[in-house]
């Protein structure tokens, strides 16, 4: 069984990294981690921005905690691979949002419980074997935040120790935002100088984690448990200088942990970092546990205990509000906008019979409309000749329409319900029928179609001189087609010249939109990488080129594999490329 923790620095941007950018599917990333429980920190997302792809992942159950104080900040998520299922799920470390009755922070914690849990930093999942904490600890960027951070650390310790006193085991997975020892820092001497201390442990957060871990405390740092003296085992790098590839730079730290209580030690199997997983300035950290261990039952008989038997629970409390499957937007209970525009079904059989009767009447009127149109088309010539004359057939059909309308009204009165839809249809159909359409009127499409040339002449009907009669069409004669006529002469040279001009114009446009070519460094003869000055000052916004290789030591035997000291401003390179006096 594997547990993974990873600070992804934004759930909406992680799929932009290789190799996840090839599939653009979040499930591919989760499957690649190959873990049963995946704890993610700093998802930086509001609930309204979480798409179904991230919330409902096939084969996993997702749990979310979002920041309430600042949107798009902090936030944690836990994905549990099915069929594993927790007994309960809780949001926050203090229990404020769930009105936890068995835990209350001590008076030593000055920060209010609502403030501690307002940033969405913790999810607690209780299993039969252990209680899992997925936590994104605060940083200590300022003095005010330092007090908030230490209150949060203290609350985590009190909550874990209470569970241990109750006989439960605890696992804390997340970004602790604190280095434990000097081996977890790339440059401990310079770091102590910046803090103004002589002992690396004198920072409050480092002292807390040292007292919380074994042998002083109840928790075990599983990665150091298996690699106690390994150097360079960092989990966070400076992405601006691409320091991860060479594991070099000033900002390399180990601040991501999987901490397990001492009582789970028989289940320990292995733990390590995964620096090859890209997508964030942090890398994943995993902890493996044995699937089966041997133990003795109360009678003294040796038995095999399977860990998955303790992680699949049929006991469920009230529906968990932080489980994505219970979100209203994904539960199929929320109405869609299209539901408000769909047709309503008949309420009872009486209504249905009336609708059937109305449809029958409508079909009769439709039949009448078609016959009326035929009648109008037959008498349209007479109507044009004398608009005051009304054909006898049309007057007869209008009388039939009045009779149908009265019959429909009688049926409506008899049933006690009034329906106006069919009557409106009849009136509309009559109004359309009473507007005769001139068959000789040109349609809109005729203005866009090619004129056809006829071989024989055609004559139009003779006009009687009225204003409504269209003018006669003049005769048109098409020249005879000679089947023995030779093919037209084609100027091949002219066509080749036009083709060359087209190709030249296309090349010029492509050159206009093609990214400019970067210079090559002097040592590796490789294209450089372009950067922009973000620091405020006289050079703010200026672009420059550096060697594209990762940063690394310059005095070692492999110094040629790392970034050389090549530097050039973009303006200087443009002058050199154009040859405007640059040497």
UniProtKB/TrEMBL annotation:
Gene Ontology terms: cellular component: nucleus
NCBIfam families from the UniProt entry: xth
Site keyed Interaction with DNA substrate: positions: 282
Positions bearing the site annotation: Important for catalytic activity: 256
Cofactor needs: Mg(2+); Mn(2+)
Residue segments, region Disordered: 457-479
Site (Transition state stabilizer) location in chain: 177
Keywords from the named record: DNA damage, DNA repair, Hydrolase, Magnesium, Manganese, Metal-binding, Nucleus, Zinc, Zinc-finger
Entry EC number(s): 3.1.-.-
Record text on cofactor binding: Probably binds two magnesium or manganese ions per subunit.
Record GO terms (molecular function): DNA binding; DNA-(apurinic or apyrimidinic site) endonuclease activity; double-stranded DNA 3'-5' DNA exonuclease activity; phosphoric diester hydrolase activity; zinc ion binding
Name under which the protein is recorded: DNA-(apurinic or apyrimidinic site) endonuclease
Family indicated by similarity: Belongs to the DNA repair enzymes AP/ExoA family.
Example GO biological process: base-excision repair
Domain GRF-type: 521-573
Positions annotated as active site in the UniProt record: 136, 175 (proton donor/acceptor), 282 (proton acceptor)
Keyword Metal-binding in annotation: yes
